[in-house]
Design brief:
The structure is a single chain. Helix content is about 40%, strand content about 20%. The protein is built from 12 helices and 13 strands. The strands form 3 sheets. Strands 7, 8, 9, 10, 11 and 12 form a 6-stranded mixed β-sheet that branches. The longest helix has 23 residues.
């Protein structure tokens, strides 16, 4: 191939074709008409001396060569965009930048709500898109569909930069009128109670605490499953059910609902929440600004007094002496771990 015949616009078009596997959809993605994109595909086929996309029935599939090009092309474009952004000027007060963040409702409640309030005052033109974490979150980050991912330590990629945000432990939450759970619980009582459990999406994605319980061979009696962390404390009210939730979230809801916090009868390694971004954006000033806002929000969260709940003295607080390797080994039973 003659490299001088290959410009950046062709690379952008190629990336769209490899991702969409449809000429019309790829054209929409890069603002080209169907005929223009068809012409671009023809040019790419000549340059690579390969069909790249071939029709199989009513769909188009990638040739082996095209399949090999998916990751390198995407990586090159992200690096180019990152290099351009690094040299650009960024003023948060006047910027209209858009950030997409993969984040759980748990982290949104504890951290993002405060961060977004502060960001509105500092940067009124910047917009944010919070997306639920899926099993494709790391893939979306690598493909440039996500700017940031906030997830437990075991859920992030080893390829891209990360920063530890905070740790949390787990606490049992029961209604104040619960007739069985009082100030303390034995493991047998914990397992015998009806549980409200967080489960994601297709039902195969287990939360960090569920991974730990499975590995430890503890079988709890699940009576209610819910797709969100914020729902679990609410769903025990008025019942004898119990929910195992993160301590910070338990303390937050104990200020709002008639809940009693009871220590979890078994020691569980802390949940470690991480911030991750693509390595191509490591020097991006807009991304650096966002990371600074997250750090400030974590600092405010750490320094805030829980307040409001009479049972805080009985709750396990985050223990930083746990090694990360212990947290990592506590629940590696599946790759779909979110928090």
């Amino acid at each position: 191939m003659e490299l001088h015949q290959f410009d950046l616009n062709l690379l952008v078009a190629l990336d769209a074709l490899l991702a969409e596997r449809n000429v019309t959809h790829a054209g929409v993605r890069v603002n080209l008409s169907q005929s223009a994109m068809s012409g671009t595909l023809a040019r790419l086929r000549r340059l690579f001396q390969d069909q790249l996309l071939v029709s199989v029935g009513r769909r188009m599939v990638l040739t082996p060569l095209a399949q090999e090009l998916v990751d390198p092309v995407r990586e090159i474009l992200l690096l180019v965009r990152g290099a351009i952004a690094t040299n650009s000027q960024f003023n948060a007060a006047t910027s209209n930048h858009h950030f997409s963040i993969g984040v759980s409702d748990y982290v949104t409640t504890l951290l993002m709500a405060d961060m977004l309030r502060e960001a509105k005052a500092k940067a009124p033109g910047i917009t944010f898109e919070l997306r639920p974490i899926s099993r494709r979150a790391v893939e979306d980050l690598e493909a440039g569909r996500l700017d940031f991912l906030i997830a437990p330590q075991d859920f992030v990629s080893s390829v891209h930069p990360t920063e530890q945000l905070f740790e949390d432990t787990y606490t049992c939450v029961v209604w104040t009128g619960n007739r069985i759970a009082h100030e303390t619980l034995s493991l047998e009582q914990f397992l015998d109670l009806g549980h409200v459990m967080v489960r994601f999406g297709d039902g195969e994605t287990a939360n960090y605490d569920e991974q730990f319980l499975r590995k430890s061979k503890y079988n709890r009696r699940v009576e209610v499953t819910t797709p969100g962390f914020d729902f679990a404390p609410q769903l025990v009210v008025g019942t004898d059910r119990i929910a195992l939730v993160t301590t910070r979230l338990a303390e937050r809801y104990a200020q709002l609902l008639p809940l009693r916090l009871v220590p979890f009868p078994v020691e569980i390694p802390p949940l470690i929440e991480m911030l991750q971004w693509h390595k191509a954006h490591n020097q991006n000033p807009a991304h650096a600004w966002f990371r600074a806002q997250i750090r400030e929000a974590v600092s405010r969260m750490e320094s805030a007094s829980p307040g409001g709940s009479p049972d805080h003295s009985q709750v396990h607080r985050p223990r930083r002496q746990h090694k990360r390797t212990e947290a990592r080994s506590a629940g590696r039973a599946s790759s779909g771990r979110t928090g």
